[in-house]
Design goal:
By secondary structure, the protein is an alpha/beta fold. The chain has a domain of 148 residues: Rossmann fold. 33% of the residues lie in helices and 22% in strands. The protein has a 7-stranded mixed sheet with strand order 5-4-17-16-18-19-20, sandwiched between helices. A hairpin with a 4-residue loop joins strand 21 and strand 22. The chain is globular, with a radius of gyration of 21 Å. The mean pLDDT is 97.
Length: 428
């Protein structure tokens, strides 16, 4: 194996302004714990589990209720128990410090071809109306709500509405066939199905009415199917949304109360349901998105994903930071591989999340991201899905410049986070 090649090193300004640097300074002041470098911090986070996670609760001002209990009450594996008496709410932390006039979501799709924006005020209002609609359908804490919907703002609002009530979310992308969706949703027995009329991919419309009819018949436990008109532009079906002045409230649930159910790929038997809790995902995403993605005020973070991949859930966690998110629904290679780079220009993306396969495709097609576009705001590229080749690393720097921060991410549905992540203060 050849020696690694140094492609980029962070500037002093970058290191000084990184969230992880601020956290290390805070640890020194507030906890009297000092580290000489990032590796020392990483080692401490492993050796002193209780102290590390307790520090994140304090640093991010996480509300776990008046008596959360010990950080790690039971170290058994499997079966470890964290903060056994805590009560919390993931979506409450999403909304708690938001500037209602700031943009929370930028979005575009093959159906909605013009770049749109949702402010925090709009996101909160839609979330409250959906929550009111779900309550009217009898949804209570612990019920499952499953969505067969695309990567659009209304789906984000539906998730936040569901979780605000203590109900449990699960989603599948509309390009999934009926059997794939039934194999997933039938195992969790949802009370309500949120479904789309169809979607557009590669310039073609795909009607999903037959699939939806099959889901409504074969998924166990469903008492109500709610339609969202995406292709026809009608939106939520008449009578579903609550009043425009609906108030958004938050059910405080135990630390390990299920937040969402994700699924393994199903390569061996049925897809395996994997449950993640409010508290665990909340702390993990606060930690990862601040310290490893380095999401900060003014950042606009994009990651290509669908609602059937854990990277969608990963991207939603950016809303726990001061950054905003950018959504895309459609074929990333239509009409050409320039499509997502055009979006990066149009939406002012600062972190461009993609796959190693997409980068390899751009290399093969001789795509030139910086040619004829303003990518001056783009400071970071994230790659996941498979290992990025050395040639892929070099291509990013050749095309986007030496000041780019390229980081690889490797994790999985099991944890809904990376095992391997970026560190903004280290060289590439």
């Amino acid at each position: 194996m050849s020696d690694p090649v140094l492609l980029a090193s962070p500037s002093r300004e970058t290191i000084a302004g990184a969230n992880v640097t601020r956290y290390m300074h805070w640890l020194a002041r507030a906890r009297g714990v000092e580290f000489s470098d990032y590796e020392a911090l990483r080692r401490w986070s492993i050796d002193e589990l209780d102290a590390f996670w307790a520090s994140l609760v304090e640093y991010f001002d996480v509300d776990l209720g008046p008596t959360p209990g010990p950080e790690l009450a039971d170290r058994s594996m499997p079966g470890a128990r964290w903060f056994p008496d805590a009560l919390t709410s993931y979506p409450e932390h999403v909304f708690r410090a938001a500037d209602e006039n700031a943009v929370a979501i930028r979005h575009v799709s093959e159906v909605r071809v013009s770049l749109g924006e949702w402010t925090w005020m709009q996101l909160r209002a839609q979330t409250a109306q959906i929550a009111a609609g779900l309550r009217a359908l009898g949804v209570v804490p612990g019920d499952r709500v499953c969505a067969y919907m695309p990567n659009i703002p209304e789906t984000v609002a539906a998730f936040l509405a569901c979780s605000s009530m203590g109900a449990i979310w699960s989603s599948a992308a509309p390009e999934f066939g009926a059997r794939s969706v039934i194999d997933r949703f039938d195992q969790v027995r949802p009370k309500v199905l949120l479904v789309v009329d169809g979607y557009r991919y590669g310039g073609r419309d795909f009607d999903r009415s037959d699939v939806v009819a099959q889901l409504s018949e074969e998924v166990s436990g469903v008492s109500r199917v709610v339609r969202f008109g995406y292709l026809d532009g009608t939106g939520w079906e008449d009578g579903f949304l609550g009043p425009a002045d609906s108030e958004l409230s938050f059910e405080h649930v135990p630390f390990d109360h299920p937040l969402w159910v994700l699924y393994s790929s199903g390569t061996t038997g049925l897809p395996k349901p994997i449950v993640h809790g409010h508290g665990g995902i909340l702390l993990e995403q606060l930690k990862h998105h601040h310290l490893h993605v380095d999401a900060q005020a003014g950042d606009r973070i994009f990651w290509f994903t669908t609602t059937g991949w854990m990277m969608w859930n990963f991207l939603l966690g950016i809303l726990l930071t001061d950054a905003s998110i950018v959504l895309f629904d459609g074929n990333p290679g239509y009409p050409s591989l320039d499509r997502l780079w055009n979006l990066a220009d149009e939406a002012g993306v600062t972190t461009f999340g993609t796959s190693a396969a997409f980068i390899a495709s751009c290399m093969k097609a001789d795509t030139r991201p910086g040619l004829g576009r303003d990518l001056s705001r783009l400071r970071a590229v994230g790659s996941t899905g498979s290992p990025l080749s050395p040639e892929g690393f070099q291509w990013v720097y050749d095309e986007l410049g030496s000041s780019t921060w390229l980081f690889s991410t490797s994790g999985g549905t099991d944890v809904c986070t990376p095992f391997v992540a970026g560190v903004p203060t280290l060289p590439v």
